[in-house]
Amino acid sequence: xxxxxxxxxxxxxxxxxxxxxxxxxxxxxxxxxxxxxxxxxxxxxxxxxxxxxxxxxxxxxxxxxxxxxxxxxxxxxxxxxxxxxxxxxxxxxxxxxxxxxxxxxxxxxxxxxxxxxxxxxxxxxxxxxxxxxxxxxxxxxxxxxxxxxxxxxxxxxxxxxxxxxxxxxxxxxxxxxxxxxxxxxxxxxxxxxxxxxxxxxxxxxxxxxxxxxxxxxxxxxxxxxxxxxxxxxxxxxxxxxxxxxxxxxxxxxxxxxxxxxxxxxxxxxxxxxxxxxxxxxxxxxxxxxxxxxxxxxxxxxxxxxxxxxxxxxxxxxxxxxxxxxxxxxxxxxxxxxxxxxxxxxxxxxxxxxxxxxxxxxxxxxxx
Length: 367
Fold this sequence. Notes:
The protein has 367 residues and is of the alpha/beta class. Helix content is 40%, strand content 15%.
């Protein structure tokens, strides 16, 4: 990614990378939460935690990128080593522990990135319109399918928010409020993360009463923030859930999502299960604790997506995450009822062409 950052600092190289890796099929564009996604393939939270690589990830064709998980105060995360490959299973185990620069630093970085994008787009638009009479100039919203211009479908940014490790669960709602307010003008949608297994006690917040306190409070702030100015609209709020929930717990989440009018769910986070792996028990014991992601989570994630979709008759949009490596994996999730998909472990194993390959497959046989 640092090599990508160096390359993308040069406009010609950035355009070359985008030409090589970004999907060109505009037919895959989708509208969800009132947002226009140029394609349904996004990058899940946990990869670009600190919003350092947005330009580079856009050049690789991602339709959306979820930054974070971001916490109010910066924190170093758990001790290293904390990220492990399981190549026999096409999986990863991580126990990162919400390592991030803190919400204020990330918010400033996002603001600067948006300003730079806008300035670049304006320069390109002015250059293209040079010598053309005002009456004949194309509208600024015209889609020329030219990557990295202001009139191309822009990269959608999600903000994944969490609590600091030192914050007790009874005060967790305060941490989510701090992050929500700080990122309100910097991201397009929010994801509340209470499902990471790597912050002690965090998953206890998935219980219905704890969730209601956090989510209802954020919805109240959402209306307050959007009501302060006429051009500010409420931000979509989603909840990310674990694959280890029981059917009753999933039902509680669904009931709460409908009650509080959540905009959607992200299914799913990593699992603490170690069942049916090809990696030996000795290897797993040497690695230790952490969340498992990748191919072993695929079926469970799909089951949960399908369950939510059928239980709600499609009332709650779902972003599917878990074991997506190929177009067939993405089709499986979309056929189960997902509106969008996210990759993470698949990106690590498949490489920079994963978005283009998935979109090519979806174009040939859309679910």
